[in-house]
């Protein structure tokens, strides 16, 4: 699991997020209201490139007469898939704590999507369900990352009804094709069917689920090894693969640079993979790193950027809080504001 950029306070992260939107360095702290249910404005477009323009992929319902320009007429207009097809660059967060409260705060904060991580987080399907319900309450799309690429895990995850599903360690187009088959009902795939009773179909109440599920679902494959980089363009070109998610930490480990993901050779390998993904036609997705921030990724054509991890945010805030208190004891300056900056209010205020 990559170590994402998680340093700094919540205000700093919100400021960086607005800078990501405007593609410039933040100058003032935004005034955010937790009671404001309106999302941050996200109408910016990705950098245009005729050479690296993702192609529309077909899906089980692409031949449906109700489909226009690759988007189902019945598809939610603000779904992740629709927004990507409209040229938006989306900013999200990974959730490893499996806390429904944190998931709800994530949605209220304004992230475009949240990835509930069952690969490196401690939770399973039941825990993920609670997070999905919390995110749904804030109308924030959820993506489930699987512990492994298998039909059983995919079936159980898809039955919960996430907008996206992420398959780890995809090293070849053959593996990518298998991943897609896990997401589709026969005859297009091998997904087991219980569509009359699962959450994905509103427990059978959504009578149009079988016609539209392919248009709604975002299928994501992770490229995170040297072998995967070599096949990145082919993986990206597999029918049904909507996004390719880069995994910089696992890639650096596979190259012998576990402790140095920013190594020149790793960065060069990442550029090779990125070019392959964009030429293959899928949307390019990735993690922000200390040496490779959200704006850098956006500039290189990334369409989905994950900027932080919930556990990392809390860790940084907790460590910083303890540090400030201990420093105040040493300096005897409990009432002073550090570095002349405006003090942050505590929760009790």
TrEMBL record:
Key word NAD present: no
Keywords assigned by UniProt, alphabetized: Lyase, Metal-binding
UniProt xrefs under InterPro entries: Aldolase/citrate-lyase_domain, HpcH-HpaI_aldolase, Pyrv/PenolPyrv_kinase-like_dom, Pyrv_kinase-like_dom_sf
Record's GO cellular component terms: cytoplasm
SUPFAM superfamilies for this protein: Phosphoenolpyruvate/pyruvate domain (SSF51621)
Compositional bias per record (Low complexity), positions renumbered to this chain: 51-66
Region of interest (Disordered), ranges: 51-79
Entry keyword annotation includes Lyase: yes
Entries under Gene3D superfamilies matching the protein: Phosphoenolpyruvate-binding domains
The HpcH/HpaI aldolase/citrate lyase domain, residue ranges: 91-316
Domain of life: Eukaryota
GO MF entry, a single one: metal ion binding
Ranges of compositional bias, category Polar residues: 67-79
UniProt record similarity statement: Belongs to the HpcH/HpaI aldolase family.
Name listed for the protein in its UniProt record: HpcH/HpaI aldolase/citrate lyase domain-containing protein
Protein source organism: Dovyalis caffra
